[in-house]
Amino acid sequence: MTTTRTENTPVSHPAAAGGTVASTVPVGAVYAEGSTLDRGASLVEGSVVLDETVAPNAPWSAVVRKGHVLTIVDVGGNQSADCLLYDANDPEERYSVPDTLAWQGNAYVRTGTVLRSNEGRPLMTVVANEVDRQDTIGGACGKESNTLRYGHHVMFHHGCRENFLAEAGRRGLGARDIVSNLNWFMNVPVEADGALGIVDGMSAPGRRVAVRAETDVLVMVSNCPQMNNPCNDFNPTPLRMIVVEPAPVSGASRSAQAAGTAKEGA
After folding, report:
1. Which residues contact 187 (CB under 8 A, 6 or more apart)?
2. Under 8 Å CB-to-CB from 69, ≥6 apart: which residues?
3. So what's the pLDDT on residue 12?
4. Can you give the pLDDT at residue 98?
5. What is the DSSP string of 112-156?
């Protein structure tokens, strides 16, 4: 069954001495009327066990069972899906940026990247990806960082950190459990001199990434509410989250895969 996750009513700007706090950045913004939306489909064939739409700006979480594949659809294009991963049976073991990057020796997340825990164990593997590279070093926006970057007029806007805290609370987790995260569909290039920048995305409506759970994994996502940089094209749009139990691989397919693997290793 397809469902939609919505967000609580945004907090209004409080009164300030001599008037109210004004902002040119919308709070609780939704995608512009007439936006191109493509809900896509799972990147992996199988039986659908979960299919939910995450509203613009809202948090989401679910447990993805071992062997199941989660496809995240960038419905409107360039919508950053900030993401945290936890071992569902022991949340003390969670996604680790340094372990993931050190094991693969690359700063980007691409097809084949193994998303590792703080114990060095695989949590999920990127099995399909329609964007050249995915980010895991740009971090998550929050009220404090937004104020520092963009000015005090945005200090009352919630960000991905606030979404993570809200969703973590529903899962029995807290502030100490919020660690460095993935940013699906956000473009953070690393320049030759090591400089970073959040720039226009490389995604488009309907682009997808698929990750396979290597153990039971609690996946937590913030559909980024950022309205101050290009991470969501200044136009927050929905995400679609599809979890499938992959179709069994036939004997002939396994033999073909084995032959291909042997040829690659030759």
Report:
1. 133, 135, 198, 199, 200, 201, 202, 230, 231
2. 42, 43, 44, 46, 127, 210, 211, 212, 213, 243, 244, 246
3. 37
4. 95
5. T-EEEBTTS-EEEEEEEESSS-BBSSS----HHHHHHHH-GGGTT
